Design the sequence.
């Protein structure tokens, strides 16, 4: 082997060693960076999807335009997105199960409307616990609501409702919707059971209702500070009051 060939082989070996060292260093650096969280001082974003390794949604944070519509086991249904800025949560099956939404703006007429709500959904159904503030230009309602929902799958219910909405005859359509959305075996689709809050008349209120959603016991401190306790029958008539007058 002549001298020039030996020099070329040594140069090639040196080159291979350098390249291998560089690539190894880059691989180690990339691995370390991948195993460590990325830190941002500030970030502007229109939507963030938090997902499981299999792609199922667990949380969506978004503005109004990119907000998500209802999702059932990973499948969109009902109305389209674009109306719920805030945070929407999903269960282990990829079905929406609550969220935090908020709005507020003043219209061209100078009046404002604002709302904030945190809701928790019944499994495969809609919200049953809601903490909400609603303000219509100073007419406000804010409080905690607890409700009962029938064990009827929300996806099947919405699909059936949307199908009935295609019936051209108004009378026939309304009758079909009443049958679908009305009580079954005496159990309503939804019944408010508890409300604790401040109503639009500026009264502090505690309402306890029966399984049909009819208020039966009401504790009130009105806007002038006067307290009362009322018992009501199933028609909503007061049967007893403390103080009596």
Sequence:
């Amino acid at each position: 082997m002549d001298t020039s060939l030996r020099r070329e082989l040594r140069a090639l070996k040196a080159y291979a060693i350098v390249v291998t060292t560089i690539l190894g260093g880059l691989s180690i650096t990339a691995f370390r960076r991948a195993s460590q969280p990325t830190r941002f001082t500030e970030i502007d974003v229109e939507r963030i999807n938090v997902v499981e390794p299999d792609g199922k949604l667990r949380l969506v944070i978004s503005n109004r335009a990119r907000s998500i519509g209802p999702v059932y086991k990973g499948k969109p249904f009902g109305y389209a997105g674009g109306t719920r800025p805030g945070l929407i949560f999903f269960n282990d099956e990829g079905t929406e199960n609550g969220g935090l939404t908020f709005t507020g703006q003043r219209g061209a007429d100078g009046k404002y409307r604002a709302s904030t709500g945190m809701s928790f959904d019944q499994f495969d159904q809609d919200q049953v616990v809601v903490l909400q503030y609603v303000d219509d230009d100073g007419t406000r309602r804010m409080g905690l609501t607890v409700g009962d929902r029938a064990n009827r799958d929300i996806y099947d219910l919405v699909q059936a409702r949307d199908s009935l909405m295609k019936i051209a005859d108004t009378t026939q359509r309304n009758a079909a919707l009443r049958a679908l959305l009305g009580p079954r075996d005496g159990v309503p689709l939804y019944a408010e059971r508890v409300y604790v809050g401040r109503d639009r008349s500026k009264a502090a209120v505690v309402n306890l209702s029966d399984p049909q959603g009819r208020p039966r016991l009401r504790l009130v401190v009105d806007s002038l500070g006067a307290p009362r306790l009322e018992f009501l029958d199933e028609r909503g008539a007061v049967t007893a009051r403390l103080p009596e007058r």
Summary: The first strand starts at residue 47 and ends at 51. Residues 47-200 form one domain. The chain has a mean pLDDT of 90.
